[in-house]
Each structure stands twice: as C-alpha cells, then as structure tokens.
Design brief:
The protein folds into two domains: 182 residues, Periplasmic binding protein-like II (D-Maltodextrin-Binding Protein, domain 2), CATH 3.40.190; 97 residues, Periplasmic binding protein-like II (D-Maltodextrin-Binding Protein, domain 2, 3-Layer(aba) Sandwich), CATH 3.40.190.10. The protein has 13 helices and ten strands. Strand 1, helix 2 and strand 2 form a beta-alpha-beta unit. The protein starts with a helix and ends in a 10-residue tail after the last helix.
C-alpha cells in the first residue's frame, strides 16, 4: 500500500505540474490589432511579430484584422471591433472632432512608403516633368492628398503646381494611368516597385525628401480601452518595437514574410525594405518637429480650422516603449 500511495502522490504531483505548464502556455491575453489597409508596408510589424512569436513573449495572443481604409479603421475602434491598431497619422485630427480614439505611439516617420508612379510609356521622366500634371490618390483629406500638394510646394511651384484628383482606390488609379486619363499616381512605394518589376510603370520619386520630419503612421487605441487596459497597451507597444528591432537585424526573414503578406516577389519586397526600414520609429516617441508638420497638414487639408494642441490628439502615457 505505501508503494501504491507513493505512485498516486507522484501522479498527482505530475498532473498538477502539467496543469501549471498548460496554464502558463495558454495564459496569453488576447488582443485584436487592426491594420487600416492591406497594402501598407509600415503595418508589417504586426504580421512579423505574430509569425516570429515576439508578441507572445510579452504574453499577448494578437489577432491581426485588416480593414479597408482609415475610415473603417476608426469605425472598428469606436465600435470595439478591434482593441488597438495602426493607421495614418492624418486620422489624429478626428480625435479633436470627438472621435473616442487616441494616438498612443508614432510608428513611421518620413513618407518613403509613398511614391509618384507613371506608366512605362509616359513622357514624364523626372520630377520637373510633373509640373502642371494630374496626380491621383485614393481619398480627399488623406496623407497622399497632402503629399501631392507638398510635392508642388517643395518643388517651388506653389499649391497649384500640380492637380490632385481622388479616384477611390489604388486599382482605379492604376487603371486610369494605364488608360492615360491621369498623368501619375501617388501610391504605396511597394505598389510602384511591383508595377516597375512588371514593366508596366516607373517610380519617378519617393516622397520622403518632401516631408523628412513628418510622422506618417501612428498606433491608436480606443480611449476607453486605453483607460481600462493600460498594461495591455504597454505590452503591445513593447512587442511592436521589439519586432522593429528584429526586422532591422533580420532583413531576409522580414522580406520573406512581407512577400507572403503582400503576395509580391521577394525581389520587390527587398527593395521596399531598403526604402522603408529606416523610417520606422524605434520607441514610439512623438517628435515635436514631426508633430508640427502634421498639425499644419490638418489645416492645409481643411480638416481642422486651427492647429490642435498635443493633448487633443495624443497621449504620451505609453512612450517611449522600449522592448
């Protein structure tokens, strides 16, 4: 009997140990993280962080949810369909208008992720050739809309030096360009590089040099969620910036994952990596100079009548976010 008793005790100890291990394995907190679009390279850390198990190291089980634009992203946060996520910085102005959403970290700086693209047989060869031409983008009041204006101002042509037109989608812009209904399109750099690889178009210029200090992409959370779950947000940002560090040190793995996520060739995504990895924030801090450019853009796009204060559009509660 003592021997049997010892076996039972051992079995119970082992069982409790296994239960403890299982609990630790499955104790990760679920977090729904949204991406405003499927075509933006700056949102790739969500995919890399999940695939490489980086968020899991911070006790998070992250579900990546892809939305169909900045407006849908805002709606998803407001309706509690997502907890946190990444979208364009222009949307920070919506907080001033009453949207219960707050920017929690800067994620991407200069807009090297955007480029002016022309079709392969276009007579436009240089930036100078764009003067007086029509450049399309997706929606009015968006970052690409502002970049078209900034290109004109930056080249010394004034605000009306080029004509911008909103066509609703990247596909519509590509179709219009191929039909020679517009002269060029402002689109994601990786889209331009893919079209270039297919010999259907050419990249005339990337846009980083026209707004070198601007904050272009931002992490957001619902204000209610930020108030109730600050520890989760802190861990999310720690995982995000740990992923950035991984991406900077592991180009080949990052390119392989991005090729799968964007369904593009590794060669194209390797070029996109070189364009964009240098613009990724390492700690989420809101650079004052970048904020000033961003606030001016709200007024220039007629989104807000005056420049907002920092407190109206962001919180620094969670940054710097060191992994």
């Amino acid at each position: 009997m003592p021997f049997i008793r010892r076996i039972v005790v051992v079995c119970l100890v082992v069982s409790f140990a296994l239960v403890g291990v299982a609990s630790s394995v499955f104790a990760a907190d679920k977090l729904r993280a949204g991406k405003a679009t499927s075509e933006t390279w700056g949102y790739l850390p969500l995919d890399v962080g999940v695939e490489e198990g980086i968020f899991a190291k911070y006790g998070l089980d992250v579900e990546v949810i892809v939305l169909s634009g900045g407006a849908r992203f805002q709606q998803a946060l407001v309706s509690d369909s997502i907890d946190v996520g990444v979208s364009g910085s222009i949307a920070m102005a919506q907080t001033v208008k009453g949207s219960p959403v707050i920017a929690i970290a800067a994620t991407v700086g200069a807009p090297r992720g955007f480029a002016v693209v022309v079709v392969a047989d276009s007579p436009i060869k240089t930036v100078a050739d764009l003067k007086g031409k029509t450049i399309s983008f997706a929606t009015n009041g968006s970052l690409p809309d502002w970049l078209v204006r900034q290109l004109s101002v930056g080249e010394g042509w004034g605000k009306g030096g080029v004509k911008g037109v909103a066509l609703g989608s990247v596909e519509a812009s590509i179709t219009a360009a191929l039909a020679h209904q517009i002269d060029a399109l402002m689109t994601a750099t990786e889209v331009g590089l893919q079209l270039e690889a297919e010999k259907r178009a050419r990249v005339v210029t990337e846009m980083g040099k026209y707004a070198p200090t601007m904050i272009t992409q931002v992490a957001y959370a619902g204000q209610d969620f930020a108030a109730k779950q600050p520890a989760l947000i802190k861990r999310f940002l720690q995982g995000w910036f740990a992923t950035i560090a991984f991406m900077q040190q592991n180009k080949d793995k990052t390119v392989a994952i991005s090729a799968k996520v964007f369904n593009r060739s590794p060669e194209v995504m390797a070029k996109a990596y070189d364009f964009e990895i240098t613009t990724m924030s390492k700690d989420g801090q809101f650079d004052p100079a970048g904020l000033e450019v961003l606030k001016n853009s709200f007024v220039e796009l007629d989104i807000l009548p005056t420049k907002p204060t920092d407190d109206q559009i962001l919180t620094r509660q969670f940054v710097p976010a060191q992994p």
